[in-house]
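Blinded run. Sample ID left blank on purpose so nobody reads anything into the name before looking at the predicted structure. Input follows.
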Amino acid sequence: MLRPLLLAALAALALATGATAQDAPAPPPPVEVVATDPPAARWYAGVDVLWLARDYPTDALLAQTVNANASTMFRAVPIPGAPVLTLGGVSDTAAQPGLRATVGFRVADRTSFELGYFGLQQWTGSASIFGQDPPFVNSPYMGSAIIYGNKSFDTSMTARYASQIHSAEVNLRRAFDLGNWTGSALGGFRYFNLSEQFSLTGMQTFPNVPEGPPPASQTIREQTRVTADNNLFGAQIGAELGRAFLDDRVSLAVNGKAGIFANSANQFTANGASLPDGSGTSVVAAGRGRTDVAGLYEGGVATTVRVTSRVTVRAGYQVLFVQGLALAPTQLAQTGTAIRDSFV
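Blinded prediction complete.
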């Protein structure tokens, strides 16, 4: 009896198994795994408007009000408390607007190339002091056209200053995470240009020249004019560190750059005197160029507010310090000496 029971049990098991296999749904097809490509490289750009103010390193006396009488005919005697003309009065002008533009190309997840430019600022300033014969106006840099021993002008003295900057750079930037902060480091090449123009103009009126009918006087115009150009080329490194707040709607960032550059600088200085119609012009001019080492350091802090997913607004404060420059006012030649052809 044991064997038939065993066969029956096996048959029942087979039927049950067959029924189960017949009623079960077909297995799903295998899922194909497709490898995805890394994020495609993308372009990005940004534009800032910068108001940049010049802070000239030193001040200097350009002209002062002096007196002359019988005992001081051949000497310029300063008048205490009288008007003076200083370099700071024309060079330290208000902040001027300029443009900063950045274009980048992301070559990997955290690596990108960037092109940057800032500049277009134009600083100009002028100031004058006046004489009345007497008092006169005297400058250590003017007076070669004056026949009197005090080398002073009886009409006026005017100083004019202008400068412009341009900066272009190309960098490789690498992003990283630092806890709750995000940052980036960069290295690249930078070109920086500072151009300055400076002039001093004195006006002297001589009575009864030429003789005869009016005009009964003639005005002599003497001017010393200086231009200086600085062209800096070199490598730089930098970094930026920032953190987002309020669900990434507001962020704070600090940045800095530093570089050592070769400064190819040149200057041209001219001194001349002429009548108002341009006749009788005499000019002495000299110039020189040379290359020295210069340093450029830049840093700032900025706050960014995200308005929409594609629009952000940023405001901050930026500082730029450049050393090793040839500045136009330092090229002025002293009255009575040949115009020097070297930088001070």
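Unblinding after everyone has recorded impressions. The first strand starts at residue 43 and ends at 52.
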